[in-house]
Each structure stands twice: as C-alpha cells, then as structure tokens.
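Quarterly update from the structural biology core.
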Amino acid sequence: MNKVEMVDLKSQYLHIKDEIDSEIQGVLNSTRFIGGPLVSKFADDLKSYLDVNHVIPCANGTDALQIALMALDLEPGDEVIVPSFTYVATAEVIGLLNLKPVMIDVEYDSFNINRSLVEEAITPKTKVIIVVHLFGQSTDMEGILDLAKDKELIVIEDNAQAIGAEYSYANGQKKKTGCMGHIGTTSFFPSKNLGCYGDGGAMFTNDEEIAQRLKMISNHGQKKKYYHSVIGCNSRLDAIQAAILGVKLKYLDNYSTKRNEVANKYDLAFKNITRIKTPTRSEYSNHVFHQYTIKVLDDRRDELKNYLLEKNISSMIYYPVPLYSQEAFSSLTNVTSLPVTERLCKEVLSLPIHTEMEEQVQDYIIESLCNFFENE
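Predicted structure, tokenized:
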C-alpha cells in the first residue's frame, strides 16, 4: 500500500481540472490579479451560500481573526475569552493586539467551548467571546449568544474548520456557522473543506457598520484611495485564488456528503472497540468532518499513531499541547491546568478523511487500526 495521506488534494483537483484550469487561464488572460470582478463574484456567491449580508475576502484565516478584533475599538488589556483547545492562530491574534486571552476549557464530547465556563470567566474587562467550531461541527451557539447579548459582549466565530455546517436553534431556525455572531471568520488554506491553492480567508457579518470597518481595515484603513481613516493592513484575496474558490464552492455540499460517508464507515467499523471514542454528532448541528478525530483511551494514542505509521498510514494529533502551556503565552495567561483540554491533548488522533477517499484505502486503514487492538 502506498503512503496514505491525510488529504488527497491532487485527486480532488483532477476531478475538477478542466473547470479550474479554465478559470485560472481566464485570470491570466485578464491580467486582473488583485481585486477585480472574480473576487467580487466569489464574495457574492459565498454570501448567497451562507445567507449572510456581507462577505469580505482577505489574505488568510489568521488575518481574518486579527482584522475582526481590530474592527471593535478594543483597548490594550481588554479580555477576550477563547477556548484552550484550538489552533494557535485563534489566541495568537489576541496577544498580537495587546489584548488578554482568557483561556477556558472545552466540552469533552464536542471539543468546543463550554458555555457554563464562558459565563464564569466574564469580568468587567471582558469584551469579546471567540468560539471555534472545531473539526467541522458547530459550538452550541444559542446559549452563548444569549449570554453575550445579556452582558453586551461581541461574539466572533472562528469557522475555519466548519464552513458549510449548519446550526439548529431550539425553535427550528437554522443558520450556517460563521453567520450567527457579530463576525465570522474562515481560512481557505488548501486542506480546508473549502480550500484554495495558496492562502486565503474571509470575514462574514450581518452588521453594515462592522462590514465597512472590516473592508477599510483590510485595505490599509482607507475607504477612498489614498485617504486613510484608521491604521489598517494589507490583506487581500488574489483573483486566482478567488477563481479557484468559485469553482470549489459549487461542490462544497457534495464534499461534505462524501466526508460524512467516510466518517460513517469509520464509526461502524470502530463501534465495538472499547478503547476508542468516535466523534460525537450533536443534536444541534450537522457535521462536515474537516477532521475525523477519535479519542484513544488508556494512554494508547501514541502507540497507535506509531503503529499506523509503520503501516504507511498518516495520522495527526490536533493538538498535542494546550495553548496556555505554549511558551508564547507564558506572559499572557496565568492558567496552569484545564482538565478536559489536557485529557484531549493526550487522547485525540485524527485519521485520513477527504473527498476522494477510495474504498480500498479506507478498508486498509480500518483493518490496520482494528488489528492493533485485536493483537494487544
């Protein structure tokens, strides 16, 4: 068996090669490489897909988070509540802007921020709650939004891993992730469910005033060329990436369906392995499976990972170290231990999952993993 990778971007590209190549050639022919109609069209198409009032493309997902915070008139030392179990970018931008990250624990089953702990963490200096829809499933948003409204706080959704997922409110209303809080952000990193062939990102909002600030800040703080109202940055999605994303957006729901098929097969295969906990499907959100992340119990995770590597199967640990234990945050937080985060860092293992997964490849992954536990 050849090396089994976490994603197979080449096969995905080959399935849509003619469309992608045509769109890229169109950009080259136009020589409109920055901005222009293709970037605007992609923003409009994504806006329609998400059913949100404004989509502002930018250069990458980290910029999207940073610009979102820059648009809020925060003061140095203001507190931003953030989950402790997430990628570094979510908290990194908080420190970069001289704000204080308040890291709190997550739910063991969902991997997402714990609403009751959010409430406990609020102080007079709290201004923002950042939720992360981790691995492809929404945080339970309704309670967090009600809490934020009551405390007059801003909610930012880091939607880099869950674009296309849908949240169901108690009254039956449904909304796409990234479009429920004040600002949503996403990354178009190539391995994302909606990924380009380089770097890219976007911000979403239903608030007209916030939208104008996001646009202005991402374009050197200017509304009119050479007239700069605020200090901004240069963060733009280029036209070639917008053209690629415009093609792939048409397939996003189909990609989610295929990822769920792979996840369902994993679930069925692993259901009787007592030392594995398969991903939870919540009652309030569908799952788009950016990652298929199992929990390996009894301190067997690293041994399993090494065994799979011997079998030429890739796997990944997202994330091996809590944010508060990272040296970069040593002066920014006084958190020393959060039990759920620390348990997850020792148990989680993500298996290959992508839109072009071949049946025989997944069968080999399943057989290898099952053999590991059968042969103990």
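The first strand starts at residue 54 and ends at 58.
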